[in-house]
Amino acid sequence: MGGDQAPEHLFAVGVHVLPRPPFTSHLHLVVYPCPPAQTGVRPVTGSAFGEAGRSAHPCRTGHRRASPLMIVIIVSLGAACLLGIGFVAQQHAAYREPLEEMLHARLLLNLMRMPLWLAGLGLMVCGQILGAIALRDADVAQVVPLLAMNLLFALTAAHVIYQEPFGRMLQLGALLVSGGVALFLFAGRPQGGRLPDPVSVRWLAALPVVVVAAALVFFGLRRSLKVKAILLAAAAGVLYGLQDVLTRASLLTLDHGPNVLWTWQLYLLPCVAVVGLLLNQSAFDAAPLQISLPATTVAEPICGIVLGVAIFAEHLQVSPAAIAGEVAGLVAMVAGIVILGRSPFLAKPAEPALQGQHRKER
């Protein structure tokens, strides 16, 4: 090869493990010629047993690992699916409880004896675990908007259970939610952020969140049942947003060892989760999903994004075009959630005795 002439081909080395009886193995090195455009791909190692005759060529692009962002999106959508189906089951069970049980611990105690509610709670917990996994590898502002799509999955589950067709407004709502989330992520490209010290003043940003949730509950107590359900659901969503941030903080602290046991965030997390669950189930007891779920779904991502910026110092793109896209995406997401939440088939099927009982109490 000439001194300045570029090589026509480079080479990659693959390691094959060939089984040898009885329990030994033999390493065999193979050199593959690779076109220049395909270099830089990591070699692929074949398995030790049963794959001796089928080793992958290390230059094949089909063996590249999936991008971390794509994995986060898939995990977050899986979490949203489980959350949505879990909400449908929980609301169907909670709506049977007397209105006097709202905001009382015995509401949760009664629901814990109902298999349908327990199944819904299990699905929600599984969704939260997947959400926690996504939050461990991505910023709050990237994960929470995807979790907001749980209403889409609730809509699908209600369609399957109640056998009601999709209408044009439902299709519009689905398009607005999906397009709004995609536009927000594309325009904002949220990134960065770091875990603050447990005693950092940045954590004071959580105090206004608690105050807002308490104010929503206080004002809801003096309003009509429909408004009360919306305000309780919004308060639950605000606390769920705080729960997302506390979950990520605990997981990031765990990465540095058992020091997480000495942080107050770990012990505040279950308290916030239980109070949020009580508010959520009280809203489900007061009104069907078309009233109670959209407020939760809207409040959680907004609160999560705001806290992600305030506490973790995450940042969004701030160019005029990016800001316009972010605002348009958030507006579209909220509008889509509202449209879907007003869908009549998210309500449970007619049950005359129960409907009459609720009308009297209203």
Features:
362 residues, mainly alpha, two-stranded antiparallel sheet, globular, disordered C terminus
Helical content class: 55-70%
Which stretches of 5+ consecutive residues score pLDDT under 50? 2-64, 347-362
How widely separated are the two ends?
Answer: 89 Å
Cross-sheet strand order for the largest sheet:
1-2
Structure annotation, total helices: 12
- Largest sheet, described in full? 2 strands, antiparallel
Strand content range: 5-15%
Give me the strand/helix succession: EEHHHHHHHHHHHH
Average pLDDT score: 75
Find the structural class using helix and strand composition: mainly alpha
Rg value: 25 Å
Count all strands and give the number.
2
Bulk shape: globular
Task: Provide an overview of this structure.
- With 362 residues, the protein is mainly alpha-helical.
- It is built from twelve helices and two strands.
- It has helices at 68-94, 105-111, 115-137, 140-147, 150-162, 168-188, 206-220, 225-254, 264-286, 289-311, 320-341, 352-361; strands at 10-20, 24-34.
- A hairpin with a 3-residue loop joins strand 1 (10-20) and strand 2.
